[in-house]
Amino acid sequence: DAGITQSPRHKVTETGTPVTLRCHQTENHRYMYWYRQDPGHGLRLIHYSYGVKDTDKGEVSDGYSVSRSKTEDFLLTLESATSSQTSVYFCAIGGGFGYTFGSGTRLTVV
Amino acid sequence: AQSVTQLGSHVSVSEGALVLLRCNYSSSVPPYLFWYVQYPNQGLQLLLKYTSAATLVKGINGFEAEFKKSETSFHLTKPSAHMSDAAEYFCAVSDGAGNNRKLIWGLGTSLAVNP
Predict the structure, then answer these.
(1) Between B96, B99, B107, which is nearest A42 by CB?
(2) pLDDT (tens digit per residue) in A35-71
(3) 8 A C-beta contact, residue A1 and residue A97
(4) In 3-state terms, what secondary structure has residue B60?
(5) Does residue A59 sit at the B interface (CB-CB below 8 Å)?
(6) What value does the mean pLDDT take over residues A97-104?
(7) Angstrom distances, CA of residue A57 to CA of A33, A48, A67, A93, B7
(8) Could you identify which of B13, B31, B77, B103 might form a hypothetical disulfide with B17, taking C-beta atoms 3.0 to 4.6 angstroms apart as the criterion?
């Protein structure tokens, strides 16, 4: 597998607290993505990045922000977590030839 | 714009039976097509991909898929299901090979294999 690691793997947080999820890649890939996966909704794109400090919104970006200060790291922040953000979050790298995914972060907001 | 439809959110087969997971796509340009598999509590792994070469694509674990332009389909098959094939399967389409191309995803099909 390509070198993509997500941290933490599991997290429980309280409503209203900020949360940051980290995606780290060792492939020097320009494009990185954050998805959330929920039953019945498949994969939904939250934000993506096409280079250092270059990011854009996906289809479900409300309540989320991202940052990419280095090629290898793409951070996803929930500014004030809500129960609707309980989900499994996946990071991916790639482009038209396909993506490689991290193992995911299971986030529970209580 | 590209789109993907996976027919059947849940498919159940008996061990040893044929597996057929359906995927239809919409694309205004020649597509690149993908099947990914997700085992429980894991990330998605690439099963196979079509990138405009042979229309019959073979992937890992005995799976294959055939690109049919006239039917805008890319169905996934395996002749004989194994218990270990139980997983979620996702079809995806890209509108090109460039690094700036995003994948558009189907909603997934959950495959159950009964003993």
Answers:
(1) B107
(2) 999 998 999 999 999 999 999 999 999 999 999 999 9
(3) no
(4) helix
(5) no
(6) 93
(7) 10, 6, 12, 16, 28
(8) B13
State whether B96 and A96 contact (CB < 8 Å).
Answer: yes
Which residues of chain A lie closer than 8 angstroms to B102, CB-CB? 33, 45, 48, 95
Q: Does A63 touch chain B (CB under 8 A)?
A: no
Pairs of residues, one from chain A and one from chain B, whose beta carbons lie less than 8 Å apart? 66
List residues of B whose CB lies inside 8 A of any A CB.
Answer: 9, 32, 34, 41-46, 49, 51, 90, 94-103, 105-108
Indicate the residue type of A94.
Answer: G
Looking at residue B31, its pLDDT comes to 87
Has residue B26 got a pLDDT over 80?
yes
Q: What is the mean pLDDT of chain B?
A: 92
pLDDT band at B102 (very low <50, low <70, confident <90, very high): confident
Please tell me the predicted confidence (pLDDT) of residue A2: 58
**CA nearest B24: which of B78, B92, B87, B97?**
B92
The residue behind tokens 């995914």 is: A101
Alpha-carbon gap, residue A36 to A40, rounded angstroms: 12
Which residue is associated with the tokens 């039976």?
Answer: B17
Q: Any chain B CB within 8 A of the CB of A100?
A: yes
Could you tell me if A18 and A79 are in contact, meaning their C-beta atoms sit under 8 angstroms apart?
yes
Q: In chain B, what residues touch A50 (CB-CB under 8 Å)?
A: 100
